[in-house]
Design a protein that fits this description.
There is one protein chain. It is built from 32 helices and 17 strands. With about 900 residues, it is of the alpha+beta class. Helix 2 packs antiparallel against helix 3, helix 15 packs parallel to helix 17 and helix 26 packs antiparallel against helix 27. The chain starts with a strand and ends with a helix.
Length: about 900
């Protein structure tokens, strides 16, 4: 036994309905295997499969054509019997804000059960009898209640076999080029593309009509299958032609309308009840009801914003294969409906919305620019964007939309406040809060020049601005006359008078005043700003091509003002040339990714929104895939910093802070965060590489310095006269040599070796310092030993000489004075010869010691230099000689000769 309740539980959930309509629900129950003719027939008549299991299914039929489909199935079943139970009931069609399609049944129909059928039979709810009366050949027999079904007077469906029950789902389809057909390039481009479309007509056997009054193709499509085939083939042809530069392509707008009550003539284009200049190029436009009937393979997109929407409102369709993967990876942003209501033909000059006139815009009372909203928006997950827009829509009062919107703009505490502020920040350059800064600015470049401000102007300027904001146009005009008389060469009166003319509805006069202000201004920033205002005026009037040209001139005046390029891209979207606009947006998203979020919520991109979003999701997918690998790279870099640098390294703390910031960015699902992470990671890689290179060079220089110090230590220690006492000294010295050799023979760029090398060099330097401090003691011992040796040597020589003189001189003196008599000194020497000899030896020894000390002290430094410094000089000369011989040898080589010749 099959129960409908299990199917109802599996239906798509729509928490809040965007559109509600009526339709027909078809409950199918079969035994065995369902014949493939059943789903094919139902789809050809516009039915949409909602839920299916092994033995039952639930379908949604938006039109009464479902009865013609069931009639054909019943006639076919009489010849080819099949067990199939069909129940047709009235339902409510539900469409969510994300265009999810669902259905709701009356509560009494939600608990039905039925046994497997034995034959084909169709049960119809009694409320649907009127729908069948308009289809000839169909009738119903009163059947009454049935066990398991709802307790209503069910009718049994019956179809006359004499009729074919052909579908009435036929459409007129129109293809119209965008742009001005009076220009040669437009005419040539469209006709070349029309030839491509005509080849498709021939392949699909479609008859068409070429407009004589205007460039347009009109043709008829019979049946839903023809509609599906043609739209799929046309969208594929457009995609192929765009990807092949050698083939001709021209953007065009397309729409299909039901044929009921309409004639196949050229005037059919005026009966579509839509503005062709606002349609999205290259996407077929249909009613929501017709678009949902196309079924699988197609994606339904909202076409433009308006008041109350219904299933008969316009939308456009694209191939699901083109947007399927993108829609999975990013959220669909639905802008607040209460703001998007079109109550006026032209857009508000200040914010771009059509829900109010320029003089009523809430931005007129904003005082400060808020560029920080883009940074705040960049820190929000993109999945929160739709929720924020939905909350903004709920926070707006339907009766007093502008008043509630003004309150929302006064705060940024909640996400709905942030979304509102961001939407009004998009076109902030055209608002008063920027105009007042321009008056006070003395800078030359945008946007830095807006920070170089001077005090406010005089009394009349403030009074004129206050009167204008209060919409007292007469008093404003009077004050402006006084301003003109007081400031003859000032651009301020002309700039404000342009806004006055704009709000009074005279755009031409407004541009005249802004041209005058441009001539009177004296910085590139001011000139670019007034060019921007002129371009904005043309954009509001619908002169998109001229507006784009002026935006380009404003950019040339202020090359750092990227908003001018963005506005030019918006103009190309409004003109219908979305492909060129996307190229401009791609460059902008690369230069400043905040424009990505700006395009997501911009209400003025409604005409090309589907194409722009498609391009955005392409960029999103590319950035997202790159970020996946970058996230892993951040983790590896974090581990590498820990591995490569010690905590006291100068690079450690800044690197850790940067990596923490990148980790936070890696967690954000936002395009701005994606590009910030990619750019910051590239900069960090460059900084890390530079730091490593600097540290390696520093290490290499340090190694050379330590080697020289080691040589000095070795040289000094080599003269120490007691080498056995240098065991600890030699151990530290050998450790230094070993570690320096390790550093010289390792690949230092590797993280482990890098940190180990830094550690070893630090230890070597510390030990070398210790060794050199110990060298002082060694030098004292060495010098003392040398002094004693020199002293001993001198003393020995002087002692030998003195002893020789004493031993020889005294006997000689006695011999030569033997004839001398009665001289007391001679007599004393003769009488006490040996005592006098010993005294003389002692005196000569003391004298030899004194002379030796004097001689050694005088010659000690010179001798020390000769002994200890001469070998170092000889070693240096020998190294220099070897180096010179190598250079000479290299210079004599053939390679060197070739280099010299070059």
């Amino acid at each position: 036994m099959s129960s409908i309740s299990s199917l109802l539980q599996a239906l798509p959930k729509v928490s809040q309905s965007r559109m509600i309509g009526s339709g027909y629900g078809v409950w199918l129950v079969w035994g065995g295997t369902l014949n493939t003719a059943v789903p094919h027939t139902l789809k050809d008549y516009g039915a949409i499969p909602m839920v299916q299991t092994d033995s039952q299914a639930l379908w949604l039929a938006p039109t009464p054509e479902i009865f013609r489909a069931l009639a054909r199935l019943q006639i076919w079943a009489r010849l080819n019997p099949m067990p199939l139970f069909c129940q047709v009931v009235p339902i409510t069609v539900l469409v969510g804000y994300d265009l999810t399609l669902s259905m709701a049944l009356p509560s009494e129909l939600g608990k039905q059960v039925v046994d497997p059928p034995k034959e084909f039979e169709v049960w119809v709810h009694p409320k649907l009898g009127e729908a069948l009366q308009h289809i000839s050949g169909l009738s119903m027999q009163q059947k009454g209640a049935m066990a398991g079904l709802a307790n209503v007077e069910w009718r049994l469906f019956d179809a006359d076999e004499g009729l074919d029950y052909e579908t009435f789902l036929n459409w007129f389809f129109v293809i119209k080029p965008v742009g001005r057909m009076g220009e040669k390039d437009s005419i040539m481009g469209w006709r070349a593309w029309a030839d491509e479309v005509k080849k498709l007509f021939g392949r699909l056997s479609i008859k068409y009509l070429v407009g004589t009054r205007e460039e347009v193709l009109i043709f008829s499509l019979k049946g839903l299958r023809s509609m599906r085939t043609f739209i799929a083939e046309l969208l594929k042809l457009i995609a192929e032609t765009k990807n092949q530069p050698e083939r001709s392509y021209w953007p065009c707008v397309m729409a299909a309308v039901g044929q009921k009550g309409k004639q196949f003539t050229e005037e059919i284009t005026h009966k579509f009840n839509l503005d062709w200049n606002k349609l999205t190029p290259d996407l077929p436009h249909l009613s929501y009801r017709d678009a949902f009937m196309l079924g699988e393979g197609f994606k339904v997109n909202e076409a433009r914003y308006g008041g109350d929407e219904s299933l008969e409102s316009w939308c456009n369709v694209s191939l699901a294969a083109d947007a399927g993967e993108r829609s999975k990876s990013a959220a669909e942003i639905i802008l607040p409906r209460k703001l998007m209501i079109s109550r006026h033909d032209s857009e508000c000059f200040y914010c771009g919305l059509r829900s109010h006139q320029s003089g009523e815009c809430p931005s007129r009372w904003l005082t400060e620019s808020k560029p920080g909203v883009w940074n705040a928006l960049a820190r929000i997950d993109i999945k929160e964007f739709p929720k924020g827009m939905r909350k903004l829509d709920e926070a707006l009062d339907e009766k007093d939309t502008l008043g509630s919107l003004t309150e929302l703009l006064g705060s940024e505490k909640k996400i709905e406040n942030l979304m509102a502020a961001a939407m009004f920040e998009i076109n902030s350059a055209a608002q008063f809060r920027i105009l007042e800064r321009i008056w006070r600015s003395r800078g030359k470049e945008w946007p830095s020049g807006l920070k170089q401000l001077v005090p406010e102007e005089g009394q009349f300027v403030n009074e004129a601005m206050e009167a204008f904001k209060a919409r007292d146009y007469e008093r404003t005009a009077g004050l402006l006359k006084q301003l003109r008389m007081k400031y003859v060469r000032s651009y301020i009166p002309s700039s404000l008078q342009g806004f006055l003319a704009m709000e009074e509805g005279d755009q031409h006069q407004a541009r005249f005043y802004w041209q005058e202000a441009e001539r009177l201004s004296y910085t590139p920033l001011q000139q670019g700003y007034f060019l921007f205002l002129q371009a904005r005026s043309l954009e509001v009037e619908g002169e998109y091509k001229e507006a784009a040209t002026l935006y380009r001139r404003a950019y040339m005046a202020s090359p750092k003002w990227l908003d001018t390029l963005y506005r030019g891209g918006v103009c190309m979207v409004k003109l219908g040339f979305t492909g060129q606009a996307i190229d401009m947006f791609n460059d902008l998203w690369q230069q400043n990714p905040h424009f990505f979020n700006q395009a997501l919520i911009d209400p003025e991109l409604d005409r090309g929104r589907a194409h722009v979003l498609s391009a955005m999701w392409d960029r999103w997918a590319a950035a997202e895939s790159q970020v996946e690998s970058e996230r892993e790279r951040v983790e590896k870099l974090d581990a590498e910093i820990e591995q490569r640098f010690s905590e006291d390294h100068e690079f450690y703390e800044p690197a850790k802070k940067t990596l923490e910031n990148m980790k936070a960015l890696a967690k954000l699902n936002n395009f701005v965060a994606f590009l910030e992470l990619i750019n910051e990671l590239a900069l960090f890689d460059a900084k890390l590489s530079r730091q490593v290179e600097q540290d390696i060079k520093r290490m290499q220089s340090k190694v050379e310095y330590l080697v020289e110090r080691l040589k000095d230590v070795q040289q000094e220690a080599s003269w120490f006269p007691f080498p056995k006492l240098l065991r600890e000294f030699n151990r530290d010295f050998n450790y230094c040599v070993e570690k320096i050799n390790w550093v010289n023979h390792q690949h230092i760029k590797a993280a482990d070796n890098f940190r180990q090398a830094a550690k070893y060099l630090s230890e070597v330097e510390e030990r070398l310092t210790n060794l050199q401090s110990r060298l002082v003691t060694l030098r004292i011992i060495r010098d003392s030993t040398l002094f004693i040796l020199m002293l001993g040597r001198s003393f020995v020589w002087f002692e030998v000489i003195g002893l020789g003189l004493g031993l020889i001189g005294l006997p000689l003196a006695i011999y030569f004075t033997r004839t001398v008599q009665h001289v007391w000194i001679v007599d004393v020497i003769r009488d006490q010869q040996w005592e006098f000899q010993k005294g003389l030896i002692l005196i000569l020894s003391v004298l030899a010691l004194v002379v030796s000390l004097l001689k050694t002290a005088i010659g000690f430094e010179r001798r020390k230099k000769e002994l200890f410094e001469r070998p170092e000089e000889e070693d240096a000369k020998s190294r220099k000689g070897r180096s010179g011989s190598r250079k000479a040898k290299n210079a004599a080589s053939p390679k060197a000769k070739r280099q010299v010749q070059k």
